[in-house]
Amino acid sequence: MTGLRGRDSSPGSIRDRAAAVQSTQTGRSAHARRRAWIPGWLRAIFFLPAAPKPMAHLDPNHVATSARQMARPARKSPVDWLGLASTAGFAASGGSAGDGVSLSTSLARIGRRFLPKEPRRREVLAVLTLLIAASLISVTGPVSQAGATTATPDAGIAAGDVTPEPTDAAGTETPAPPDPITPEPTDTSTPKPTSKPAPPKKVTPKPLVVRTFVALGDSLTAWPNTPWPTRLDAQDAGLRLVKNAGVPGNTTAQMRARLARDVYAYHPNVLFVLGGTNDLGLGISGSATLANLRAIIVGAKSQKIAVILLLVPPDSYISMGPKISALNRAIIALANAQRILYVDIHAPLTNGNGVYFPKFTSDGLHFSDLGAQTVANTIRYRIRRIGL
């Protein structure tokens, strides 16, 4: 206890001793702090030793020992390393060691003068230095590559293989003669004749089909001197008259009786039937006239003969007009029922009252030459429309 009391343990003396120790340690660690300005990632890049760290102490009252450094070998800053490297190079080149030491000291002083003292600024300076260096490398890299010569195929040719250009006596180069120009061959062959357009194809006319016919009737078919059947044969090459079976004064019943002798015996292709005028003059009923005409049609069809009915022509007497019109309506109905062709020769020959035009009749009943021609023209126009 006495030994302990002999020591000054007052609070003031303890603070004095701690301040003295702290000042001593502060002077010792100043150099360590200067060496710790380089960050760890930069030390790892340049393979520099790690910065010294203060010892950890759990008791914050031990101020004297809180700033003590861990036992580590002495390390030099990058500026010191630069000075040593320059000293070694200077000594290797033949200089004295004293001169090298003075050089290293001067370089160290210059480096410390320009380096910032705060660690944060030093880190910023180091980062900027690296960025500038990287920029210079990226800029100078392509330039150096561009300056490099690329080997060309001509570079491998020996100097002896190159033939010098001819020169004249004065030493100037004589221009080489131009290459001879070979004229392009001209086409001297005989020009090919242009192909003529193909001649138009000749349309082969269809062979003319001639159909024979028989005209069955009364005096309107038999008269005048050149009746309508003869005129129809003359103007239509496709029709040939084989029998004019017109008998003056015949009724439809008499015409029916002559079918075998005057029609079937000639085997015609077409049969023209004109009857009914004498039936009206004799007072025969219309039903009897139609029955005879129907029998003629059926008989001709059985012989495979095409039948064409002609309507009754007009008369010069006005009283006959209604009778003729009624019979013609019945003939049209019969033709439609039997599905055969009929030709209206009544309309072209009469006026609005159902009476003959005088020019178409010779006596008020029979056809004149102009009347016969008009009938032939009407029949021909009608059958041509159906392709007969």
Structure in words:
The chain has 388 residues and is an alpha/beta fold. The protein folds into 3 domains: 8-66, no CATH class; 78-131; 211-385, SGNH hydrolase (Rossmann fold, 3-Layer(aba) Sandwich), CATH 3.40.50.1110. Helix content is 47%, strand content 7%. It contains 15 helices and 5 strands. The protein has helices at 2-6, 11-35, 40-45, 63-66, 78-92, 97-114, 119-147, 219-222, 228-235, 252-257, 259-262, 277-281, 286-302, 320-338, 369-385; strands spanning 211-217, 239-246, 270-274, 306-310, 341-343. Strands 2-1-3-4-5 form a 5-stranded parallel sheet, sandwiched between helices. Strand 4 (306-310), helix 14 and strand 5 (341-343) form a beta-alpha-beta unit. The radius of gyration is 72 Å and the shape is rod-shaped. Residues 1-7, 62-72 and 143-173 have low confidence and may be disordered.
CATH topology of the largest domain: Rossmann fold
The number of distinct helices, counting runs of at least 4 residues, comes to: 15
| Fourth-level CATH superfamily of the largest domain | SGNH hydrolase
Helix fraction by DSSP (H/I, runs of at least 4):
40-55%
Mean pLDDT: 75
Rg computed from alpha carbons, rounded to a whole number of angstroms: 72 Å
Give the biggest sheet: 5 strands, parallel
If classified by CATH, what would the architecture of the largest domain be? 3-Layer(aba) Sandwich
Span between N and C termini?
A: 165 Å
Overall tally of structural domains: 3
H/E order of the elements? HHHHHHHEHHEHHEHHEHEH
CATH class of the largest domain: Alpha Beta
Briefly note the structural class of the backbone: alpha/beta
Percent of residues in beta strands: 5-15%
Rough shape? rod-shaped
- Spans where pLDDT lies below 50 across 5 or more residues: 1-7, 62-72, 143-173
Strand line-up across the major sheet: 2-1-3-4-5
Number of strand segments: 5
